[in-house]
Amino acid sequence: MASLSLKNVSKSYGAIEVLRNIDLDIEQGELIVFVGPSGCGKSTLLRMIAGLEKITGGTLEIDGMVVNDVPPAQRGIAMVFQSYALYPHMTVYDNMAFALKLAGKSSAEIDKAVQSAAETLQLSHLLDRLPKALSGGQRQRVAIGRAIVRDPKVFLFDEPLSNLDAALRVATRIEIAQLKESMPESTMVYVTHDQVEAMTLASRIVVLHGGDIEQFGAPLDLYERPANTFVAQFIGSPAMNLLEATVTATGQETSLQMADGGHATVPIASTDGDMGARVKLGVRPEDLTVTEGEDYLVAADVEIVEALGETTVLYFKAQNGDPSLIAKLPGIHRIAKGTTVRLTAVSEKLHLFDGEGRSFLYR
Prior knowledge:
Elements: E1 4-13, E2 16-26, E3 31-35, H1 42-50, E4 57-62, E5 65-66, E6 77-80, H2 92-102, H3 107-120, H4 136-148, E7 154-158, H5 166-182, E8 187-191, H6 195-201, E9 204-209, E10 212-217, H7 219-224, H8 229-234, E11 241-249, E12 254-258, E13 263-266, E14 278-283, E15 289-291, E16 298-307, E17 311-318, E18 324-330, E19 340-344, E20 351-353
Parallel strand pairs: 3-8, 3-9, 6-7, 7-8
Antiparallel strand pairs: 1-2, 1-4, 4-5, 9-10, 11-12, 11-14, 12-13, 14-20, 15-19, 16-17, 16-19, 17-18
């Protein structure tokens, strides 16, 4: 298996720049997930690694060798696409064996590789079936098996679960996680727009936006220490709330006056130059709690209540006209629509962003 290194990689289509100055070092054995909104360049970046898109600038190395001009078939990669792309007239066995037959492998080598991959993916009892006799999840496992038998240096997954229904997505996501555990030395790069997949599967996450890397790090690092407001709202579901505030005291802790009369003291350092600055206070819905006291962050009128049993999700609008807020409270809370609620949070769970959306922690 192999490491990957992208140095100052860019991609343009004529005058349109899709990716800019991408620098990434991916270690052997990692499962790296590219996430971001539609059009951010994540699939294009994956296709450049595969050799299906030409690199406009910079270098791509696989195991220390520059592969910019190396054909896809010689890069030692295997790709699993969003569509299963199985041959409908071939059995599961023949679909998985096809690439090895083209490579001129012996029957014994092919059978050993297919049987081993089938056992890993729990497909042994399905080897004689045609794709039409399989469920969506089983077809995707066959597509993954077809990649495994090639014993590639790097596995590339391009939104492999997007065609599955909700229940199958969860089941197949678990299967991919188990597959990675059974192949600890395998290097995998995985593209998705689903941040739940990213959080549950990734060793590290690359957050892309507008052709740039916004942040690269471990899932919980991005959740707990987002570099900017984009990452803060993209990672986590529901998205982080951002509240308007003004800095009233600086130092090792920063005091804030909230726009609707609440206040907060955040254990994040600020400088004298921040005094009086308009900033955004970030707080995740799951970190908000209801309070009856005068010490609160924001007061809001409840608009929608979702009673889910294990949690109660409140949607409301701050009284000063801020965008809608969300609170995700554990358990059952009998709060009526139209009720004015005061919300607070533990200071260690608060995030602070400057006027340009950058976290105070990364300035």
